[in-house]
Automatic annotation (TrEMBL):
Name under which the protein is recorded: Phytanoyl-CoA dioxygenase family protein
SUPFAM superfamilies: Clavaminate synthase-like (SSF51197)
InterPro entries assigned to the protein according to its UniProt record, in alphabetical order: Oxoglu/Fe-dep_dioxygenase_dom, Phytyl_CoA_dOase-like
Keyword vocabulary terms for this entry: Dioxygenase, Iron, Metal-binding, Oxidoreductase
Presence of the UniProt keyword Oxidoreductase in the record: yes
One Pfam family hit: PhyH
Similarity section: Belongs to the iron/ascorbate-dependent oxidoreductase family.
Length: 257
């Protein structure tokens, strides 16, 4: 795994960094099963629309985003007092997975200050063919841009940053299951459509230091969870109890009943 010093240098310079083999294959397989379980439970939702209000009621989801290995990575960037702001699977089905247009995450988020980090956990192998994450290195030094709606093409967010992006500078982030990419809220990033026969699934996890205030009028925010350290300035959702038959079964689930 990349050293702490190198990771922080990469992040400061480029706005992103990658940690390889953070989670074991067994847990990643359970995450893949979780996506299938969610899609069966919520058949009206697309694979690109599994998140937010589902998170805090789901014991496996909370177990996954609270994994100590992920929190150890997050702590490098936000410090020891860590909360979940939001989490979202983006599971692009074969041949039809939608693109994510160029954007900056921070332009969408009700956070003050905008101190937050995204961990992008690869559930599947991610390659240019199946729509891997793409970034513009160094663009995290830019201010947050305005957003513009885009309904002329099908896309995950329905909007994009209102700025011309020089795609010749884009870097494709090829990831294996269990790898974690970390990026800054201001970095311009996106992903192409999945035109391959292979699914491309990743889990976005947005961690904040507990000194960052969630300014949404919904309080507590529906997916806000205290995961490590002191609670700080926000109100959090309680951890869900595992109920057999209601929740997906997973390793250690009965300990959470």
């Amino acid at each position: 795994m990349v050293t702490r010093e190198v990771a922080l240098q990469d992040y400061d310079r480029d706005g992103y960094t990658i940690f390889r083999n953070v989670l074991d294959r067994e847990l990643i397989d359970e995450a893949s099963d979780h996506v299938a379980w969610l899609q069966a439970k919520y058949p009206d939702r697309l694979g690109e629309d599994l998140g937010t209000e589902l998170v805090a009621r789901d014991p496996f989801w909370v177990r996954l985003v609270g994994d100590e290995r992920l929190l150890d990575v997050a702590e490098l960037f936000v410090g020891p007092d860590i909360a979940l702001f939001a989490s979202h699977y983006i599971s692009k089905p074969p041949f039809s997975g939608m693109p994510v247009l160029w954007h900056q995450d921070g332009a969408y988020w009700p956070l003050e200050p905008m101190r937050v980090v995204t961990l992008w956990l690869a559930v599947d192998e991610a390659t240019p063919e199946n729509g891997c994450l793409r970034v513009i290195p160094g663009s995290h030094s830019e201010n947050l841009h305005e957003l513009r709606q885009r309904d002329d093409i099908d896309n995950v967010l329905g909007s994009e940053s209102a700025v011309t992006v020089n795609e010749s500078k884009a870097v494709d982030l090829v990831l294996s299951p269990g790898d974690v990419e970390v990026h800054h809220p201001n970095i311009l990033h996106g992903s192409d459509a999945n035109t391959s026969p292979r699914r491309r699934c990743g889990l976005t996890i947005r961690y904040i230091p507990t000194s960052t205030r969630i300014t949404s009028e919904e309080q507590p925010f529906v997916s806000a969870l205290l995961l490590r350290g002191e609670p700080g300035v926000n109100v959090y959702q309680p951890f869900p109890k595992y109920v057999a038959g209601e929740h997906m079964s997973f390793t250690g689930a009965t300990n959470l009943a």
